[in-house]
Structures are given as C-alpha cells and as structure tokens.
Amino acid sequence: MNYTENYRGIKIDVQSVNLDINAAVQEEIRSSIDKLSKFTPDINAVDIYFKTEGHGGTAKSVVGMRVGIPGPDVFAEEKGEHWIPLVKDVVDKLVRQLKKNK
C-alpha cells in the first residue's frame, strides 16, 4: 500500500511493501508531523516506509522516516514489533537530530 497526502502543506509519502497501514497508524503519522513541526516550521515533505524483515517468528517490523527540510534532510529508522511504538521512537530520534542541527 502506497499513498500520498497533503497535511497542513506538508507532502506525506507513505510506502509499505505488502502491508496495509490502518487508520490508527495514519493518525499517528499526522500527530508525529505535528510534533516535528514544533521543532522546525520549515518541513517540506515527509517520506515514511514500513516493511517487514525476515520470516515467521523472526520477522521484524521496520519503520524509516525522512523529513525534508532546507539544508540536509534528517532520517531515522527503527526496528521492533509494533508499528505505532516504532513511529514514536523514530520521531524521538528525529527530534534529537533537529535539536542538534539548530
């Protein structure tokens, strides 16, 4: 499932390989963008990918997020079990990067 949306003037591009992203995860993505916007008002685009690595009992969920801002973009990735906590962890990493770049 891939989808693109415009949220508050920010282009969101979500890519997921052989996965469907439910409404709760989509809402978490929007609230994450609100959180990131507090640290930099200049976000142009956000690219997010969801994928699963491995098979069966060893499968891991992976979330990666690139935030397009003037200058070098910031990127973070996290691996784990559940999508929403992974999105939150990725956003926390991005916030640290944005604070460091100020």
Automatic annotation (TrEMBL):
Annotated organism of origin: Cyclobacterium xiamenense
Protein name as it appears in the record: Putative sigma-54 modulation protein
A Pfam family the protein falls into: Ribosomal_S30AE
